[in-house]
Amino acid sequence: MSPFGASTRIPIVMILAASMDSNSSGGVVSAVERLRRGDLNALSELMRPYQHRLYRFLLRLSQDPVLADDLFQQTWLRVIEKIRQFDARRNFDAWLFSVARNLTIDHLRRRRDSSLDAPDDSGMVPSDRLRSSGSDPLEQLMDFERGERLATAVAKLPLIHREVLTLRFEEELMLEEISEVIDVPLSTVKSRLSRALENLRVRLERP
Amino acid sequence: MTHEQIRTLLPLAASGSLSREEMRSVEQHARECQDCRRELDVWGSYARGLSHLPQPELPAHLIARTEARILREQERATEKQSSFLLFGGLAALSWLVNFLTWEIAQSITGGKFNLIGLNLVAPVPWFLFSFLICSTSTIAVAVSVKHYRGQGRSL
Description:
The complex is a heterodimer of chains A (about 210) and B (about 160).
Chain A: H1 12-24, H2 27-36, H3 41-62, H4 65-82, H5 92-112, H6 126-132, H7 137-144, H8 148-155, H9 159-170, H10 175-182, H11 186-205
Chain B: H1 3-14, H2 20-32, H3 34-51, H4 62-109, E1 114-115, E2 118-119, H5 123-154
Antiparallel strand pairs in B: 1-2
Helix pairs in contact in B: 1-2, 1-3, 2-3, 4-5
């Protein structure tokens, strides 16, 4: 079952409000600073604005609500452990997501013992198949924009594609920040993003 | 840029990931090329769709459970640290007592105390025998403390 299906949705407004509230008041910066000094009360203040985003990111990557829940908790444990190593001049969002991403990848590697950038099943180059698609893409997209089908297709992409898509479109990170999170050069982020979109489109336009 | 080059940039253009200069080239080309304009619209729909995917349900009490787990882990770490200090302290103390006892035993016996043909106050037998006693007693105390703490927690 798709982890996104049949669930109560968190209104996007709530996510944006939580994120804007923390950023506009400088709440995150101050909470990070207090946490670095060992004040554990700052952790709740830090977790609240990130809970929806972080859980969503972990769920997109792991595709398992129970695992995402556990990884969410592990991420904050790791944050406490490593917060002194965090350079305050860096972007906390990128650092937090990179901690979460590394934990997820370590976990998936241990569990599945498989490549995280496994190619899709046909072996064709995505752009080749785009050209061979016969149906009207615009008509189909009216349907895709309703969401569920798109979410299901995203869930079937390899992890390295899912992560760039969610970081770019849901977390709205800049390419430079994505490069920091996934620890690859900017040019790789660009090519991976392009490839992920092509791959997604191929899956959706497949007859 | 050629038509083919522009075409490869369209997914990135729709996701707002091109430089200003690249974006200008794409827009300029799209104004004249109907195919690319249409493609750009399609990629734009994908980008909009991806920005509005159905949102997952947040598990109940996620923050409260995370805080509780952090506290548990911290208690465990503190306990581990204090057990380590206790164990180290006990080991050091038992060796100190052992060394002092050896000095006293040597001065009382004049360095000779034979039992079954073995001089027990000679350094090697004394320390081998002491090693067994010290290790066993330190482990016994550490286990008892741990057990006692466990009982305290369950109450």
